């Protein structure tokens, strides 16, 4: 119990200075300026009525499947595996004219803390891991993580933080609006999936 309290306390302190958007369906989203960037970083968090060991495969499926999680997604796959919990993923997605399509290389690394009964997943960009595609802009900056904490036998708290630089000529205001919408949308999908696991 002490470890759970300290873990939740650290999550609470990590939100200091962030702007909270209007909650939806128990989902809280926060945005903050990122030093040296016009693109905001965001955090999204919510409780889910599910066991942590059932929740992790759902998160992993997010990086191995495509259009359920990103309507613009054209291709998503693992391109390298260091271990079952440490992989490199490739994603290729479309953007409306006049913007070029984008692709990104993401390093995914999961670490379990049995003492805290929590899981941490680091997410970082590896833009030069494979050669660039012609007429496709490679996302150069990806920095984020998942922090998932088991609160009780059948309830977890999940916190997701991300900052991404799409590159090219996408206006910052457009990207920032997309970030806010996508954060809520992602967690709504997670809510739907976890609720279906109960039936």
Short description:
The protein is of the alpha+beta class and 199 residues long. The protein has helices at 2-13, 52-62, 172-198, and strands at 19-20, 28-32, 41-48, 73-83, 86-93, 102-113, 118-125, 137-138, 141-152, 155-165. Strands 1, 2, 3, 4, 5, 6, 7, 8, 9 and 10 form a 10-stranded mixed β-sheet that branches.
Would you give an account of this structure?
It is built from 3 helices and 10 strands, in the order H-E-E-E-H-E-E-E-E-E-E-E-H. It has a single domain (2-14, 30-161, 181-198), classed as Alpha-D-Glucose-1,6-Bisphosphate, Chain A, domain 4, CATH 3.30.530.20. The protein has helices at residues 2-13, 52-62, 172-198; strands spanning 19-20, 28-32, 41-48, 73-83, 86-93, 102-113, 118-125, 137-138, 141-152, 155-165. Helices cover 25% and strands 40% of the residues. With 199 residues, it is of the alpha+beta class. Strands 1, 2, 3, 4, 5, 6, 7, 8, 9 and 10 form a 10-stranded mixed sheet that branches. 18% of the residues are buried.
């Amino acid at each position: 119990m002490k470890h759970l309290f300290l873990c939740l306390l650290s999550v609470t302190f990590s939100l200091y200075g962030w702007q909270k958007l209007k909650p939806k369906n128990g989902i809280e989203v926060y945005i903050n300026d990122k030093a040296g960037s016009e693109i905001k970083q965001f955090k999204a968090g919510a409780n889910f009525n599910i066991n942590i060991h059932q929740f992790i495969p759902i998160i992993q499926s997010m990086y191995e499947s495509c259009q359920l999680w990103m309507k613009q997604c054209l291709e998503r796959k693992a391109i390298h595996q260091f271990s079952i919990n440490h992989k490199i993923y490739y994603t290729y997605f479309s953007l409306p004219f006049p913007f070029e399509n984008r692709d990104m290389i993401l390093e995914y690394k999961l670490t379990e803390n049995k003492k805290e009964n929590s899981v941490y997943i680091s997410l970082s960009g590896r833009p030069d891991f494979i050669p660039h595609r012609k007429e496709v802009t490679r996302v150069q900056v990806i920095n984020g993580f998942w922090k998932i904490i088991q609160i009780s036998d059948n309830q977890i708290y999940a916190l997701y933080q991300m900052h991404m630089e799409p590159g090219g000529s996408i206006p910052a205001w457009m990207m920032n609006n997309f970030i806010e919408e996508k954060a809520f949308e992602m967690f709504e999908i997670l809510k739907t999936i976890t609720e279906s696991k109960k039936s």
